[in-house]
């Protein structure tokens, strides 16, 4: 088996293992796993509405995954995607509601605002890491809490004491009647195209530009990069900024597409944290992130149909989904297993 | 090889899907014929919970009990005749509402003001379906809006607390700082002041309805500062208030700690050994309202586009049986206030001045 085959095989085997163990859990708690998985399947691909909603759910996951993956390529672990996403969401909704502009200017500006807000949120840990060597994991985690409470306070201020912001102007909305009608009133919006465009952007930066080469080089070995004459500090900051911008855009998906406003958040959305798994699942490559995000988005959305169609309680569903993800994330074990198998074969 | 296995697995799933799908329809048919044997069963009703979940011992649970009762009274089968879906977060509202609409329920309840937007959007798309929202107002011809005069019940809770407190310090733990919960706060504070304006009410919002740990921390702070009665209006967060009170009661049987429950009778929540920390509960009879609206809709008198407000006067609001925690003479005083409010003699304000 070549490496390529192994890389393809690992996620497939992990998903099947996850499904199997999930089935055992359902069986033991007295629910029919076959019905459950059929409900899951229908929840994802059942009809045009389900497909639309699934794609809608995938868009922010792609961007969150890109954000984590991008930082990771420079050797940085950006746990702050969640916070960057929230500030991006708020920035998008604020700019989307506060200004009245023609769509061709308004929509790009709102997206830009979201990316910028996320970038600023990524800039802080980037600078701290580059200049003072403060570990980015700690700073980004803390920045998540700062984001959560700052955004909640801002929502309250901007809306004059209410718990949610005003609806965005239609000129800033990613929603489309066309897509909505196509998918039987789902909330599918144009965000998926933004997300896919960003996949190409990330690929382009990493593979086709000098900056991308430097970023990756820093990720492989800081000292060697320094010795080769690269500005390591600059690259660390730049990586966090771009990563934050992706995360901010993920927030824009929620703000401009799915919700059209932002309500005061009781806790984290979870998309940013799931983004870590999405990125790892996709081996931190742009294309891989699309697959990772598709899996996450589908499971997340499709799982909603399990209580609906198969009467399985939400708690059990959460366990099943977590198990699938767990097995996918522990793909390393399977990879090692496969390699051993391979070696044995070669020895023969 | 591996691809073939995967393909096999996929085709197995598909095959199983077709087979079991067939079973499903069979069962459905049986269900509908058997229920037709009882009362008329072509009416169906469902609800979507807020993030607290259907077992929040409070608001959502009360709504679900109402639907269950309506379902049983009318011989409906759970699943086809009445059902619920639980929301984990804001993103689930639209999804869940749409899922129920797609299952062709005649009437779909959205429990909680947070669902206003989602119901508004879906109601304007699915104009031939009926919706109802609890605690919110949606201005669509096919949506009935249900509100409660929480302030009236909270006023009575305040009166009870003020008459029962020994330390003259009373606490209020709220969920999210929103108009509905503000009504609880306003009524409670006013009720306390009506009895004894000198009593200090410690008001705190936790910012969440589903975080018991926050409620517990807040309750710990309040009890430690000398507060002896806490009224919570915080859904699942309030369960933390109960656990804190129970821990204190368990550590010291003579500890004077009480909780006033909310929405449904939370007596069972307060049971610790053979004592109970629940003073009383302010009942918000979501179940009454849900049954009321369902019955109207069933008879073809669905109050679409209207806002119905339930209060003390129409039994939408009440205090629960205190089971001896409140002495007779205090209960009498509370009843006097209740009568005055129901008759309109006292008008409780909806928000703090």
Number of strands of chain B: 14
Q: What is the CATH-assigned architecture of the largest domain in chain B?
A: 3-Layer(aba) Sandwich
Radius of gyration of chain A over all CA atoms, rounded: 21 Å
Q: Residue-averaged pLDDT of chain B, rounded?
A: 86
Work out the number of β strands of chain A. 0
Rounded mean pLDDT score of chain A: 91
Order of strands across the biggest sheet of chain B? 2-1-3-4-5-13
Shape of chain A: globular
Task: Estimate what percentage of residues of chain B fall within beta strands.
Answer: 15-25%
CATH homologous superfamily grouping of the largest domain in chain B: Response regulator
- Summed up, the domain count of chain B is 2
Class based on secondary structure composition and strand pairing of chain A: mainly alpha
Order of helices and strands of chain A: HHHHHHHHHHHHHHHH
Low-confidence stretches of chain A: none
* Class from helix and strand fractions of chain B: alpha/beta
Fraction of residues in helix of chain B:
40-55%
Largest sheet of chain A: none
* Biggest pleated-sheet summary of chain B: 6 strands, parallel
**Unreliable residue stretches of chain B:** 17-39
CATH class of the largest domain in chain B: Alpha Beta
Describe the structure.
The complex is a heterodimer of chains A (348) and B (353). Chain A has 348 residues and is mainly α. Chain A has a domain at 60-288. Chain A has 16 helices and no strands. Chain A has helices at 3-28, 33-45, 48-73, 81-98, 103-132, 136-158, 177-182, 191-208, 210-220, 222-227, 232-259, 271-281, 286-302, 305-310, 314-329, 331-347. In chain A, helix 3 (48-73) runs antiparallel to helix 11 (232-259). The mean pLDDT of chain A is 91. Chain B has 353 residues and is of the alpha/beta class. Chain B has two domains: 38-148 and 287-310, Rossmann fold; 150-283 and 323-342, Response regulator (Rossmann fold). Chain B is 46% helix and 18% strand. Chain B is built from ten helices and 14 strands. Chain B has helices at residues 2-37, 59-73, 90-102, 116-125, 150-164, 179-195, 212-224, 238-251, 286-298, 328-342; strands at residues 45-48, 82-85, 107-111, 130-134, 143-148, 169-174, 200-205, 229-233, 258-263, 271-272, 275-276, 278-284, 307-310, 317-319. In chain B, the strands form three sheets. Chain B has a six-stranded parallel β-sheet, sandwiched between helices. Chain B has a six-stranded mixed β-sheet with strand order 7-6-8-9-12-14, sandwiched between helices. In chain B, helix 2 (59-73) packs parallel to helix 9. The radius of gyration of chain B is 23 Å and the shape is globular. The chains are: A mainly alpha (348), B alpha/beta (353). Chain B: Residues 44-349 form the ABC transporter substrate-binding protein PnrA-like domain. Chain B: It is a lipid-anchor.
């Amino acid at each position: 088996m070549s490496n390529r085959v192994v890389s393809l095989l690992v996620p497939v085997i992990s998903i099947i293992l996850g499904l199997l163990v999930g089935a055992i859990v359902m069986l033991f708690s007295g629910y029919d796993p076959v019905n459950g998985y059929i409900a899951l399947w229908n929840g994802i691909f059942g009809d045009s509405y389900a497909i639309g909603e699934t794609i809608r759910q995938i868009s922010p996951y792609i961007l969150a995954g890109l954000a984590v993956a991008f930082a990771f390529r420079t050797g940085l672990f950006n746990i702050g995607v969640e916070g960057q996403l929230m500030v991006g969401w708020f920035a998008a909704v604020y700019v989307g509601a506060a200004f009245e502009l023609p769509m061709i200017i308004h929509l790009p500006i709102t997206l830009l605002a979201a990316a910028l807000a996320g970038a600023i949120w990524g800039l802080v840990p980037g600078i701290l890491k580059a200049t003072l060597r403060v570990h980015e994991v700690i700073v980004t985690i803390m920045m998540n809490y700062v984001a959560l409470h700052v955004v909640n306070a801002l929502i309250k201020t901007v809306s004059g004491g209410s718990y949610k912001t005003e609806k965005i102007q239609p000129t800033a909305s990613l929603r489309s009647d066309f897509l909505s009608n196509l998918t039987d009133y789902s909330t599918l919006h144009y965000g998926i195209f933004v997300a896919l465009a960003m996949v190409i952007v990330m690929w382009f930066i990493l593979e086709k530009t000098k900056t991308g080469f430097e970023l990756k080089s820093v990720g492989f070995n800081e000292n060697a990069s320094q010795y080769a004459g690269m500005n390591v500090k600059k690259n660390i900051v730049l990586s966090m900024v771009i990563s934050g911008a992706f995360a901010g855009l993920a927030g824009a998906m929620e703000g401009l597409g799915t919700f059209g406003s932002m309500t005061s958040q009781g806790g984290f959305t979870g998309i940013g944290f799931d983004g870590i798994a999405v990125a790892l699942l996709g081996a931190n490559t742009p294309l891989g992130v699309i697959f990772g995000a598709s899996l996450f988005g589908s499971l997340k959305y499709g799982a909603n149909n399990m209580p609906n169609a198969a009467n399985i309680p939400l708690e059990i569903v959460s366990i099943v989904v977590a198990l699938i993800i767990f097995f996918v994330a522990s793909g390393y074990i399977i990879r090692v297993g496969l390699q051993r198998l391979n070696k044995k074969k070669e020895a023969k | 090889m591996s691809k073939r296995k995967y393909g096999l697995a996929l085709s197995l799933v598909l095959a199983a899907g077709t087979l079991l799908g067939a079973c499903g329809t069979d069962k459905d048919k049986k269900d509908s014929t058997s229920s037709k044997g009882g009362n008329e069963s072509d009416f169906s009703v469902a609800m979507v919970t807020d993030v607290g979940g259907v077992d929040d011992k409070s608001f959502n649970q009360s709504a679900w009990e109402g639907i269950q009762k309506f379902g049983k009274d009318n011989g409906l089968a759970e699943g086809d005749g009445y059902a619920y879906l639980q929301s984990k977060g804001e993103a689930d509202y639209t999804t869940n509402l749409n899922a129920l609409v797609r299952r062709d329920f005649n009437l779909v309840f959205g429990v909680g003001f947070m669902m206003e937007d989602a119901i508004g959007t879906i109601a304007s798309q699915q104009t031939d379906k009926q919706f109802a929202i609890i605690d919110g107002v949606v201005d669509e011809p096919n949506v009935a809006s249900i509100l409660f005069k929480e302030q009236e019940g909270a006023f009575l809770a305040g009166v009870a607390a003020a008459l029962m407190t020994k330390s003259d310090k009373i606490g209020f733990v709220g969920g999210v700082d929103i108009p509905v919960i503000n009504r609880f706060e306003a009524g409670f504070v006013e009720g306390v002041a009506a009895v004894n304006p000198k009593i200090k009410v410690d008001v705190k919002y936790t910012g969440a309805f589903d975080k018991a740990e926050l409620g517990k921390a807040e309750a710990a702070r309040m009890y430690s500062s000398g507060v002896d009665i806490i009224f919570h209006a915080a859904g699942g967060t309030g369960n933390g208030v109960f656990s804190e009170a129970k821990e204190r009661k368990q550590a010291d049987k003579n500890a004077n700690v009480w909780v006033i429950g909310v929405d449904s009778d939370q007596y069972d929540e307060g049971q610790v050994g053979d004592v109970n920390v629940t003073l009383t509960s302010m009942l918000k009879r979501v179940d009454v309202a849900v049954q009321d609206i369902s019955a109207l809709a069933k008879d073809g008198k669905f109050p679409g586009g209207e806002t119905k407000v339930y209060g003390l006067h129409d039994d939408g609001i009440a205090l629960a049986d205190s089971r001896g925690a409140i002495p007779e003479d205090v209960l009498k005083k509370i009843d006097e206030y209740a009568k005055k409010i129901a008759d309109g003699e006292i008008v409780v304000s909806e928000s703090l001045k």
